Amino acid sequence: MTATHRLILIIDDEEDIRFTISEICSLAGWEPITAANGSDGLLLYVRKKPDLVLVDHHMPRMDGLTTVKKMRELDKVTPILVLTVDERQKLADAYLDAGATDFALKPIKAPDLISRIKVNLRIGDLQKEMARKRRESSVDKGINNATLKIIVNSLQNKDGAVSIEEICQRVNLAYPTVHRYLQYLVENGRAGVEICYGSVSKRGRPKNKYYLVD
Q: Residue 13: which domain range?
C-alpha cells in the first residue's frame, strides 16, 4: 500500500493543532481527516476505518482515554497514537493498558511525528497481517465457531465417551461434519478417543468414542 492510501484520523479539540497535524500528514503523503472531540472522532473511526488514529487527551464530550477504550471495543489492531501535554507516567500507563499503541508529548516536531506515525503504521500492518493469517488458518481447517460450540456442548451433556453416531443424532448434523470437528478437537488436545469393541473377545470392527479433556 502506498503512502497516499493511508488515512490518518486526527482527534483534537484545538483547531490550530488539527490544522498543523493535517498539514504534516499531507506533506508526508497521507490523507488526514479530523474531529474536534472524541464522540465525533469515534463516528469517523467507524465510518472511515482509518489506518492510524492520533488522539488528544483533554477534550470535551469524550476525553482521549474513553475514546481509546471505545475504539478498542470495536477494533484491536488499528494503531492509536496519543498526543498530550500531560507528562504523568500514570496517564501513559492508563492509555497503554486501554490499548493505545504509542504515547507522545506535545509539542512534537514534524520530523519526529512523521517518524512516529511511520513506525506505528508498520506495527498496524504487522498486526493486521497476523490477524488475517489467524482467520485464514481457521478457514483452511473448515472450522466454524458456532458449529464447534454445538459439538462441544454435545460432549459436555453426555455421561462418559460417546460415538459419532450418538452425537449426530443429538445435534442433527451429518456424520462427515461431526467427524471433522471431533478430529479438530482431538488434534488440539480438547477431546480424547476411546476404542470400543462390540464383544468381550474384541473381534469385529472397533468403534471410536469421544470425550472432552478437562
A: 3-140
> Hey, which residues does 53 pair with through a beta bridge?
9, 80
Q: Is the pLDDT of residue 1 over 50?
A: no
Q: Are residues 50 and 127 in the same domain?
A: yes
Distance, CA of 95 to CA of 92 (rounded, Å): 5
**Which residue is it, cell 506515525?**
117
Residue 209 above 50 pLDDT? yes
pTM: 0.65
Residues 184 and 109 in one domain: no
Distances from the Cα of 148 to the Cα of 13, 47, 138, 145, 191, angstroms: 47, 32, 12, 5, 12
* Same structural domain, 149 and 189: yes
First vs last Cα of the chain: how many Å apart? 46
Which residues, other chains included, contact 123 with Cβ-Cβ below 8 Å and sequence gap of 6+?
A: 79, 101
Q: Are residues 88 and 155 in the same domain?
A: no
For residues 78 and 49, give the distance between their C-alpha atoms in angstroms, rounded to a whole number.
Answer: 9
